[in-house]
Write a structure and sequence with these properties.
about 350 residues, mainly beta, six-stranded mixed β-sheet, 1 helix, about 0% helix
Length: about 350
């Protein structure tokens, strides 16, 4: 995703009692709305069952130039491609608490070894390691090739993994130093990347498969047919969750043997971009026809659909809230989880 950079701006938050306000000044703007009761969403699909996030008390932060990837940690919520690159926001009120200047970030973010990890292809290919307890001590680590655009970065607890290319190459970096210690050339076209069990798993959008990779040898050990155009992968509730962009479904896969346990019709249509995260109790999908969809892993069914649709972006949870970016409208939404689960 392209991301024209701009200099850092002031971070004072302004609270407004409006459903949404697109700010035209350089100041971030937060908008809020009081929750109002309405009927629960079902898994029937369609836009008529969307819950408007204004009814859920959502706070909206105006963020430029291209608010995208999100990931939460105990100190706050990180968002990519805001201000001069990476920004950390307070989990309760969304105020900016840290900023790290980097180039455009086309890969999902990762937390590993007490640090935030991000990769950027420009102005030079590099990985940025940001210590969570001291973001000002960020280290920029050169990469031999540019990161795979619209891909992921993951950790196995010891190494941080990402794709670069071409030819497409899988890199393993030490969490403590960022030193590249493993390099494997892999099949072209792999995209999403997630570690689960004792293996790395990657999506293959062109073939509609999930691919298992040995982190010691880099070899493919299994291919699993999922849905059309699988992209991003999440791990939670004992499963891998694959977002299939082609038809808006989510495939639930057993990481022990690759068995497809369920195929869930999450979105009502094709997902352009998007994102997916999973915990032991929730699976959230950032979609296109909707704003986001909540899947209950206990039932393998959609239990809530949020709207209105606002193009693509990312999704994360933290501080008792669901966070979503909508880069097409320069917005970050913070929605109290209790307002969704208590409906």
């Amino acid at each position: 995703m392209s991301n024209p950079q701009r200099s850092a701006r002031a971070t004072t938050m302004v609270l407004m009692s409006l459903p949404l306000l697109a700010a035209c000044s350089a100041q971030p703007v937060v908008t809020t709305a009081e929750p109002t009761p309405s009927s629960s969403a079902t898994d029937s699909g369609g836009t008529d069952d969307l819950i408007d996030i204004a009814e859920l008390g959502a706070a909206t932060i105006h963020a430029e130039p291209f608010a995208d990837w999100l990931i939460g940690e105990q100190h706050g919520m990180w968002v990519a491609n805001v201000d001069s690159g990476l920004v950390r926001m307070d989990l309760m009120d969304g105020t900016e608490t840290a900023e790290v200047a980097v180039g455009e970030i086309p890969l999902a973010l990762e937390i590993a070894g007490g640090a935030l990890w991000a990769a950027t292809p420009a102005p030079t290919p590099e990985v940025v390691r940001v210590p969570l307890d001291d973001p000002a001590a960020a280290v920029h680590i050169p990469l031999p090739l540019a990161p795979r655009v619209e891909s992921s970065i993951t950790s196995d607890g010891t190494l941080v993994w990402l794709f670069v290319g071409g030819p497409l190459t899988l890199l393993g970096l030490e969490q403590s130093t960022g030193a590249i210690v493993r390099t494997f050339e892999v099949t072209a076209g792999l995209q999403g990347l997630r570690f689960a069990g004792d293996a790395l798993w990657a999506s293959s959008p062109a073939t509609g498969e999930l691919v298992r990779l040995d982190p010691v040898s880099g070899e493919e050990t299994l291919r699993v047919a999922v849905g059309p155009q699988p992209a991003f992968i999440a791990s939670g509730a004992g499963s891998l969750w694959v977002m299939n962009q082609g038809d808006g479904t989510v495939s639930r896969v057993d990481p022990a043997d690759g068995a497809v346990l369920a195929t869930i019709p999450a979105s009502t249509g094709h997902i352009a971009g998007g994102d997916i995260i999973a915990t032991d109790s929730e699976v959230w999908v950032r979609t296109t026809e909707e704003l986001a969809v909540l899947v209950d892993p206990a039932a393998d069914a959609v239990v809530a659909r949020l709207g209105p649709a606002e193009g693509s972006g990312s999704i994360a949870v933290g501080g008792g809230a669901v966070w979503l970016t909508a880069h097409d409208v320069s917005s970050i939404h913070r929605i109290p989880q209790s307002s969704i689960t208590n409906r």
